[in-house]
Amino acid sequence: MASSSFVTLLLISSFLSFSHIRVSEAATAPIVKGLSWTFYDSSCPKLESIIRKELKKVFDKDIAQAAGLLRLHFHDCFVQGCDASVLLDGSASGPSEKDAPPNLTLRAQAFKIIEDLRSQIEKKCGRVVSCADITAIAARDAVFLSGGPDYELPLGRRDGLNFATRNVTLDNLPAPQSNTTAILNSLATKNLMNRQGLFFSDQSLFFEKFVVAMLKMGQLNVLTGSQGEIRANCSVRNADKKKSFLTTVVEEVVEELIEM
Ligand code: HEM
């Protein structure tokens, strides 16, 4: 707990000790196939300004919500990639990622903020923007609006159709009681930082490294193109939304019987 709190504290205190810095263009990471810097330019040109404006209002009331949104994106990306799977509610097939121990301390309000943004964006642009992209933009704005660096985000993530099991979730998110070695190994495994670790003598260098890590994290195992879907409700797969709960249960029982 002490070491994880240290990582968190380091991140947050670093955000707070700077005011509105835009890191140099050098701070960028390779962009994965299927994402683009101009993805919503024609389908939802105001997307990023809608989110920033709304979050500014939210954070003016309670800046702690920024921490909740950043952590939500991290917990999404580390388990099965940045596919908004962490937002899904459990179903008849089992408990969701949300229900797994590392996610029980995510802020309920963070989930609500993402869904509120989604519905506001749908009103302006139609159902074109994924919950995964909204979560990534919200995390970036959480960093910036709490005094951290601003950076461009590649967009075009699609929403996953499934959530990970409890065990997969536990395997990918380090436990609060993990020691520093385990935490650094976890970050290194995802290729976000090297094992030399956390010491930065120069604060702007820290921001550059941080932005590169955020860009890499935000592109972990993304779904793009025709993969996944654009959810009509961030906590429910579209297929489940159209069906009643009973239909879903019956279908899953039938599927299990067929597999037997
Ligand atoms: C990799 C090892 C990590 C571990 C073990 C870890 C663990 C934790 C724990 C135990 C908490 C406190 C939860 C609570 O009781 O409320 C926390 C909070 C937080 N973590 Fe991490 N964390 C890690 C990495 C990260 C990373 C990479 C980020 C950001 C990209 C992050 C962002 C945050 C934030 C912003 C909070 C405060 C959330 C809030 O107040 O709602 N953490 N973390």
TrEMBL record:
<keyword id="KW-0732">Signal</keyword>
<keyword id="KW-0349">Heme</keyword>
<dbReference type="GO" id="GO:0140825">
    <property type="term" value="F:lactoperoxidase activity"/>
</dbReference>
<feature type="disulfide bond">
    <location>
        <begin position="77"/>
        <end position="82"/>
    </location>
</feature>
<dbReference type="GO" id="GO:0020037">
    <property type="term" value="F:heme binding"/>
</dbReference>
<keyword id="KW-0106">Calcium</keyword>
<keyword id="KW-1015">Disulfide bond</keyword>
<dbReference type="InterPro" id="IPR010255">
    <property type="entry name" value="Haem_peroxidase_sf"/>
</dbReference>
<keyword id="KW-0408">Iron</keyword>
<dbReference type="InterPro" id="IPR002016">
    <property type="entry name" value="Haem_peroxidase"/>
</dbReference>
<dbReference type="Pfam" id="PF00141">
    <property type="entry name" value="peroxidase"/>
</dbReference>
<dbReference type="GO" id="GO:0046872">
    <property type="term" value="F:metal ion binding"/>
</dbReference>
<feature type="active site" description="Proton acceptor">
    <location>
        <position position="75"/>
    </location>
</feature>
<feature type="binding site">
    <location>
        <position position="79"/>
    </location>
    <ligand>
        <name>Ca(2+)</name>
    </ligand>
</feature>
<keyword id="KW-0560">Oxidoreductase</keyword>
<dbReference type="GO" id="GO:0042744">
    <property type="term" value="P:hydrogen peroxide catabolic process"/>
</dbReference>
<feature type="signal peptide">
    <location>
        <begin position="1"/>
        <end position="26"/>
    </location>
</feature>
<keyword id="KW-0575">Peroxidase</keyword>
<feature type="site" description="Transition state stabilizer">
    <location>
        <position position="71"/>
    </location>
</feature>
<feature type="binding site">
    <location>
        <position position="174"/>
    </location>
    <ligand>
        <name>substrate</name>
    </ligand>
</feature>
<comment type="similarity">
    <text>Belongs to the peroxidase family.</text>
</comment>
<feature type="binding site">
    <location>
        <position position="85"/>
    </location>
    <ligand>
        <name>Ca(2+)</name>
    </ligand>
</feature>
<dbReference type="GO" id="GO:0006979">
    <property type="term" value="P:response to oxidative stress"/>
</dbReference>
<feature type="binding site">
    <location>
        <position position="83"/>
    </location>
    <ligand>
        <name>Ca(2+)</name>
    </ligand>
</feature>
<dbReference type="InterPro" id="IPR019794">
    <property type="entry name" value="Peroxidases_AS"/>
</dbReference>
<dbReference type="InterPro" id="IPR000823">
    <property type="entry name" value="Peroxidase_pln"/>
</dbReference>
<feature type="binding site">
    <location>
        <position position="81"/>
    </location>
    <ligand>
        <name>Ca(2+)</name>
    </ligand>
</feature>
<feature type="binding site">
    <location>
        <position position="76"/>
    </location>
    <ligand>
        <name>Ca(2+)</name>
    </ligand>
</feature>
<keyword id="KW-0479">Metal-binding</keyword>
<feature type="binding site">
    <location>
        <position position="97"/>
    </location>
    <ligand>
        <name>Ca(2+)</name>
    </ligand>
</feature>
<keyword id="KW-0325">Glycoprotein</keyword>
<feature type="domain" description="Plant heme peroxidase family profile">
    <location>
        <begin position="34"/>
        <end position="235"/>
    </location>
</feature>
<protein>
    <recommendedName>
        <fullName>peroxidase</fullName>
        <ecNumber>1.11.1.7</ecNumber>
    </recommendedName>
</protein>
<comment type="function">
    <text>Removal of H(2)O(2), oxidation of toxic reductants, biosynthesis and degradation of lignin, suberization, auxin catabolism, response to environmental stresses such as wounding, pathogen attack and oxidative stress. These functions might be dependent on each isozyme/isoform in each plant tissue.</text>
</comment>
<feature type="disulfide bond">
    <location>
        <begin position="44"/>
        <end position="125"/>
    </location>
</feature>
